[in-house]
Structures are given as structure tokens and as C-alpha cells.
Write a sequence for this structure.
């Protein structure tokens, strides 16, 4: 029974979902109202997990044959390992997605429910079936789905839009290409097997690294703009420090152009994003205590 639960949990891509929940929680901390309502805070996290997990599970359902050809996924994901049937995976995906959307609509508001449903459909259908197999810009456009957690969390708390969650969205959106292209640089053989037009295969390593540098500068600049929309100087200082190291990692990778330098950049990009959103939460919590 434990193994079965682990396999179904693996369909949600739990590592990615940790980042989604973390960035969604950061938006709730910045907005602040649910800090006094821990049950509501928790229910937003549950809704984000169910809807985000549904999108990821549908992605695995549609890409099960591709995953079976890639060494990075063939021995890790339950569908190519035949631990879960495609029919059961599809039913699981639709069920948790529907429960998540209904939870948002019933407990919170239709704005967040609509955003959650649109995100599921965009990631599972537009990105997975249309963009990913046809354009090297797949990661750029598809990154919008993974960046929606702060916007959705803020909408759940307020029923409205605001600048701060959209800046958080922009941070994740522009962070996604250098993060995933670093992975693509050292997993090119897998993408060749899968027949996916990832940027290094279509435009070459040098052009990919040039684009990564451009996106990295953009994300660092955007991260500093939060100082004008509620964050304090502690966050700003940490953002400058983390950004400097991030740009240095990008520069080192462009200079060395090795598999190891791409791996180091990929690993640090995760540290960078987690560090930024940890800083914004700590900053807001300290400001509220003062």
C-alpha cells in the first residue's frame, strides 16, 4: 500500500510541488491576512498542491512514452515503470484537479478557481501537447504555468489582483529558462532520444548560454523591484547577494562550457529561487513583529 501511494505521489512531481507551495506560501505571507487564519492558509496550500499536482500528473500521462525513452525518467516515474496504468493515472489526475478547483471555488472565490483551472489546462494541454514537442521556446512559454502559484495564492486571500504577486510570477517566469536550459545542456542525449526540440539542440550550446545570461539578468533586476511593493531592506540585501552569485554562476558556465558547470548552475538556480522567497517571507514576518 505504501508503494502504491508513493507511486501516485510521484505523479504529482513532489520536488517541483515543493517549489510551487513555497512560492505560494511566500505570497500569502506578503499579503498577510491568512497569517491570522492558519486553516485558510493550509487550505490554500492544499488547493495549490491538488491543482498543481493534477497538471503534473496529466503531463506524465501524456508524456509516458517520451519518459520511457529518456534515461532520466524511465527508471524513476511510475508510468514507464508500469507501476500505474495510464487509465488510473488519468483518473487520478482529473480527480485531484477537480477537487482542488472545487476547493478554491467553495472555500475562497471563483477568481482563484478559474486561475487554477486555466493553469491545469494550459500546462497539461497547451504546453505538453502543443508547445513542448514543436518549439524550442517551450520552456519560456510553459514557464507561465509554474509561476502562477503566488498569483493564485494572493487571489485566494483577497479575491483581487495586485502588483506584488505578479512580480513574484515574473521572477519565477524569467528564472525558468536558465534553470531548465542548464538541465537541458547536460541532458541533451535524453532529449535527442525523446525527439524534443530543446533549445541546445535547435540553437546550439553557445546561443543557449547567451539566452540564459539575458534571462538571468532580467530575473535579478525584477527581484529587486519588490522593494517598491512591500518588501524591506533585508530582502533587498539578500536579493542583491543571491543575484550576484547567480549571475556569477551563469558567467562561469558561459566561460567553462562544460557539463559540470551546467550542473552547478542548475543546482544553484534552485538555491537562488528558494533563497529569494525565503528572504521575502523572513522580511515580512520581521516587519510585522517590529
Amino acid at each position: 500500500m505504501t508503494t502504491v501511494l508513493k507511486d501516485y505521489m510521484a505523479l504529482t512531481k513532489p520536488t517541483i510541488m515543493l517549489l510551487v507551495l513555497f512560492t505560494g506560501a511566500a505570497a500569502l505571507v506578503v499579503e498577510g491576512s491568512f497569517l491570522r487564519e492558519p486553516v485558510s492558509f493550509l487550505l490554500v496550500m492544499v488547493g495549490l498542491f491538488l491543482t498543481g499536482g493534477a497538471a503534473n500528473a496529466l503531463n506524465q500521462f501524456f508524456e509516458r512514452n517520451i519518459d520511457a525513452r529518456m534515461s532520466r525518467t524511465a527508471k524513476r516515474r511510475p508510468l514507464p515503470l508500469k507501476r500505474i496504468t495510464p487509465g488510473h493515472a488519468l483518473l487520478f489526475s482529473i480527480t485531484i484537479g477537480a477537487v482542488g478547483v472545487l476547493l478554491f471555488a467553495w472555500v475562497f472565490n471563483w477568481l482563484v478557481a478559474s486561475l487554477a483551472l486555466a493553469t491545469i489546462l494550459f500546462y497539461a494541454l497547451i504546453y505538453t501537447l502543443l508547445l513542448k514537442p514543436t518549439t524550442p521556446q517551450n520552456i519560456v512559454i510553459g514557464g507561465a504555468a509554474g509561476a502562477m502559484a503566488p498569483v493564485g495564492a494572493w487571489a485566494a486571500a483577497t479575491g483581487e489582483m495586485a502588483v506584488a504577486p505578479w512580480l513574484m510570477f515574473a521572477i519565477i517566469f524569467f528564472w525558468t529558462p536558465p534553470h531548465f536550459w542548464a538541465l537541458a545542456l547536460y541532458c541533451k542525449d535524453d532529449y535527442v532520444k525523446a525527439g524534443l526540440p530543446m533549445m541546445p539542440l535547435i540553437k546550439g550550446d553557445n546561443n543557449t548560454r547567451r539566452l540564459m545570461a539575458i534571462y538571468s539578468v532580467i530575473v535579478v533586476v525584477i527581484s529587486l523591484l519588490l522593494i517598491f511593493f512591500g518588501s524591506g531592506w533585508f530582502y533587498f540585501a539578500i536579493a542583491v547577494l543571491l543575484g550576484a552569485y547567480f549571475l556569477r554562476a551563469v558567467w562561469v558556465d558561459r566561460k567553462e562550457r562544460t557539463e559540470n558547470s551546467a550542473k552547478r548552475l542548475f543546482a544553484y538556480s534552485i538555491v537562488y529561487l528558494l533563497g529569494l522567497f525565503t528572504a521575502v517571507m523572513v522580511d515580512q514576518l520581521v516587519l510585522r513583529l517590529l
